[in-house]
Amino acid sequence: MISEEQFQKEIDNIIANAIREDVGDGDHSSLACIPDTATGKAKLLVKDEGIIAGVEFAKQVFKYVDADMEVETLINDGSPVKYGDIVFYVSGRSQSILKAERLVLNAMQRMSAIATKTNSFVKLLEGTGTKILDTRKTTPGIRALEKWAVKIGGGENHRFALYDMIMLKDNHIDFAGGIAKAIQKTKDYLRETGRDLKIIVEARDLDEIKQILEAGGVYRILIDNFNYEDTRKAVAMIGDSCLTESSGGINEDTLRKYAECGVNYISSGALTHSVFNKDLSLKAV
Q1: Which parts are annotated binding residues?
Q2: Domain range holding 184?
Q3: Is the pTM of this model over 0.90?
Q4: Which positions make up the binding site for substrate?
Q5: CATH code of 47's domain
Q6: For residue range 68-89, what is the model confidence (pLDDT) as tens digits?
Q7: Do 126 and 203 lie in a common domain?
Q8: 244 and 175 inside one domain
């Protein structure tokens, strides 16, 4: 996984790029009618229900736009919220508040939706010992925000990108000439380049599970698109050799059944690619 320092750099880049995209050579709506000396205060108002996420991100946005802005937090990331709740107050230059407004809302609305969906999956898994993972099926350019939201919702992050973990999927295996060759070539590559990366290998059937176990040296086996019966068989075959992960169209209706097969993890792209933004507003007070 990437380091905290790397992750923060991703967040910094998101903020800088988003402000560049939105503000350009100036917020002319505000510049036209609000004096640069004017100060004000606004509240982050919830008009929905779920898990709030993005409060700490919002603070970073306000600081980037104007270091003199002050935030009074009433509700922290990961807390349940309902219609009418006030999450925080921000005060400072009126122009600065308006400059930051849209980025804060866009990010928090999406992050809260992801955190809420993740939390619902976490609750469905209670008592099973199985953990929910996100995927790389994220919105280009804001992956760090979406993976942050998964953590806030109680889930865990899969690899961040292509560079922080090896994941041999069906195409890698087919292009490499089979599972044994793909795994051996990967081990050789890691040794030759001096890289210390964990290896995950996708299995399409029980025979591939057997081949992966024979090759050895794998951190986790991705049991992809298996039915319940074959998932249980795969878990039994793997035992303590490595960790297990189920994936492939798993939803709220099937999530717990797969967990009860004994897998360590379930990964779901739906956490980030199939959510509806929560309704939040930033209102002057």
Answers
A1: 102, 135-137, 159, 169, 202, 224, 247-249, 268-270
A2: 122-271
A3: yes
A4: 102, 135-137, 159, 169, 202, 224, 247-249, 268-270
A5: 3.90.1170.20
A6: 999 999 999 999 999 999 999 9
A7: yes
A8: yes
